[in-house]
Amino acid sequence: MIVLSIKPIAWAYSMITLGTEMLNYVFSFYYVKFFLHLYKISEVAFYQAQMILMIWNALNDLTGRHSSILYGAPLYSIAFLLPWFPWKYYQEGDWLSGLHLVVSLCAFDSTLTFFQQAHRLQLIKISQMISLVGSTSVLFCGLISDNMEILLSFQAVAVVIAILAVASLYTGMYHMNHFEPTRSPEENLFSESEQDLPWTSVVSLMRQILTQKNFCLFLIMNFFQVFHLTFFNNFMMIFADNLIPKDVLPSSTRSIMYGAGFICPQCLVLITQSWLRKFGYYKIILISFYLEGTASIVMLFLGQQYYYFLALYLTIILVIVQASFCLFNLPLADMVDADLLKFNWQSPLSSMVLGINALFTRPAQSLAPMMILCKLKEYGYGNSDKSTILDLHDAMFNLICLVPLGIAVIQILVWSPFSIRSKTDYTGAL
């Protein structure tokens, strides 16, 4: 009965995790297809929105906002609902749909920052248990709305999810305020002491952190992981709809497949806790890269005509990428501890490390949809010309095989020299 024995502060963070995951999974999985297929946003407007989001991420205020989170909860849910309700009936290429996407992306990203700050690096097991519940939001959205075929049903489910998320976030913050009235460095993106530093000192600290080989290796590896994850989150439905005939894989089965891509990673992390203790996160993450590369090669040789294998492949890759990404807070925590010992800082600059990590990896969230859509458009994606459909399908199949393979190779090469590998037990902090 692990849930009943959770420490109060762990319960608070778990409720915040539940609220954020419920909204974040649905938003990232559906918004690209929503704007491309339902709102028929122009290619230029889509690229402009992603570029604005990239700039917004870089300029976004990274200071702690703990006291504002209670006010941020309803704003976060409202930002989540923004994409699903059109501001008018959009014509193809309507400029207003482009503005709608810009506002939706920037609003959701800004409010998400409130709650990402509330994660503790040590709460891996509880975080995954709660994330398992939150990940079912994608499954329910798909089943109830027939994978976006019934817009009104999708909007209704989105409203219910938003209400549940607000309740979860308020519950988490209520418990946090009672059991943790003061903040530690891990709970802000920039702690109070770091906020008081002059700009020159902040730049000096950033330069000092960026000179660490392990941290630079992690940044590169994490950038490609975020790119990989965004790639599958944003386009998995589009790839499956185009490459797998509906008579082979009915809508309900597709919904289960999409849901499994978000539910199974949490289960995988939970059931591999003993492996994590035995082998450590370094080997587990490295093995995941080899598995991704191997699966990509096998699928590439099989070919796109094996529809059931293709569906299984898409699900397995998404599960592996999501599951390994769940472990990335562990090397971050170890690097914070290593820097604390190396430079004899009075307190760990975890907020500075997290801020730099976000600054360098967030652009991947915009680059992935821009690059993939650009490639698909080269082969006639979105055009009514049926003569290009075979070329488009070949391009999609090559993307879902070669992108994971290329990223896996890069990550293996980058992650192999990472030298902080000593800690293996990360589940005892509960």
From TrEMBL:
Question: Where in or outside the cell?
Answer: Membrane
The domain of life is Eukaryota
Q: Which GO cellular component terms, listed alphabetically, does the Swiss-Prot or TrEMBL entry include?
A: membrane
Keyword tags: Membrane, Transmembrane, Transmembrane helix
The membrane topology term of the UniProt record is: Multi-pass membrane protein
- Regions crossing the membrane: 12-32, 68-85, 151-173, 215-235, 255-272, 284-302, 308-331, 395-415
* InterPro entries in UniProt: MFS_trans_sf, TMEM180
- What would be one Pfam family of this protein? MFS_2
Entries under PANTHER family matching the protein: MAJOR FACILITATOR SUPERFAMILY DOMAIN CONTAINING 13B (PTHR28658:SF1), TRANSMEMBRANE PROTEIN 180 (PTHR28658)
Q: What protein am I looking at?
A: Major facilitator superfamily domain containing 13A
